[in-house]
Amino acid sequence: MAASVPAAEPAILVATGDVTPTSAVVWARGRHAGTLEVVYGAVGAAAPTARRALSVTADGDFTGKLALTGLTPATRYVVRVSQGETRAEAGFVTAPPPDAPARVTFLWSGDLGGGGYCRPLDGGYRIFGPMRERRADFFLFVGDTIYADVPCDRPGVVAGAEFRARTLAQYRARHRYNREDAPLSALLRGTSVYAIWDDHEVRNDFSGPHDWLMPVGRQALLDYWPIAPPPEEPTRLYRRFRWGRLLEVFILDTRQYRSPNADTDGPGKTMLGAEQKRWLLDAVTSSTATWKVVVTSVSLSIPTGKPDARDSWTGVSAFGLPVDGAGFVTERDAILDRFRKHGVKNLVFVAADVHHAEELRRGGRRARAPDRSPHRRHRRRDVHPHHRPRMSNGVTTHLEQATHVSSRVSAVATIHRVCGHPQVANG
Question: Closest Cα partner for 181 from 405, 419, 415, 407?
């Protein structure tokens, strides 16, 4: 499969995700309806490999998922998927046990192919090559995995996505367009992914319960990513996962339950919904991991959206001044206040959406300064106590990180000792 021209004969796509110490999800898209053979096993193990069948249909756009269970913690696995003579291979590593002080390296990024700058004819989304070379334990894809509402009609891009999605078939086609990109496909074959949506999986700045397109965009997202909602809540996207003693990650769904952006801020306005908010508060305050990372697809403190209908958490103006009634400030500050009162330490928020990299800090000693090579767009500043998220106990870091393919921005974090700070690099 080449990124420079549309594939004449569809290849098998494969990815793994939602990995735990003993389980993982395998996602695949076949060439046609029928059965895919899935063979998997630990790399270098003497034990025989396991074999499963995955049925795919035209109604599901030839996509399907398998839950692999009974895996060994902290072990690299290989997965081989075949349909007839066509084969694809992927690999992933399972998480270490919760009490293991294992080093962890992860990537995060978001906002792929915005503004009509979609898959370049010259080499595809080349940023995923250097990301793959990091050999990270997992990849956090922090929303806007597609821009379904923006046609890919710029010069020099691969054909096939010159439309705004409105139907399930069109949303799936936009996901398929990105997933067929060779560098992205190679990254997803090389490491597992935890994916979440933002607005452009449906349309700009949408509020889930109030947008009739939300269920269609959500179904396409679930069809195309290795996400495993609980059986009793088949459309739930927020979730948590543990990576040894050092790290626990909490992935928020900032879209499905939110109030309209234009509503006046106050106790009744929510981005998370009551149930998800309770889950977040209980999960973070009870976590025993050294570092707690909260994934939010929109920024805590950088204003986005219209001035009277902010889409991010903050209600400040572009100049950093508070604007009464804007944003989701009341809910944000209530969450942070609960964390402060419970003495939560070593708390990091990672966000996307703003198409540049920025690091904001409040309290504690500074970590090592990130790489500031001239070709990298990165800003760092301390959190202002009057209009930025604040924590007075321990360390709170808000990493405003997003990828726009033309800016060549992504990030990698490594946590390698129990008392250490994560080392963050942008590339």
Answer: 405
Would you say 152 and 112 are in contact if contact means Cβ atoms under 8 Å apart?
A: no
Contact yes or no for 195/241 (Cβ under 8 A): no
CATH number at residue 410: 3.60.21.70
Cα–Cα distance list, 13 to 9, 31, 188, 218, 403 (Å): 12, 9, 9, 20, 23
Domain count, the chain: 1
Predicted TM-score (pTM) of the model is: 0.87
Give 92-143 pLDDT, tens digit per residue.
999 999 999 999 999 999 999 988 889 999 999 999 999 999 999 999 999 9
- Structure tokens given for 175: 């996901």
Q: What is the dihedral of CA 169, 174, 180, 183, to 10 degrees?
A: -160
Q: What is the pLDDT of residues 348-374, one digit of tens each?
A: 999 999 887 777 776 544 444 333 333
In a domain, 74, yes or no: no
Angle (CA) 259-172-273 rounded to 5° is 20
Give me the domain span that covers residue 302.
Answer: 97-426
Residue 146 within a domain: yes
Assigned domain for 394 exists: yes
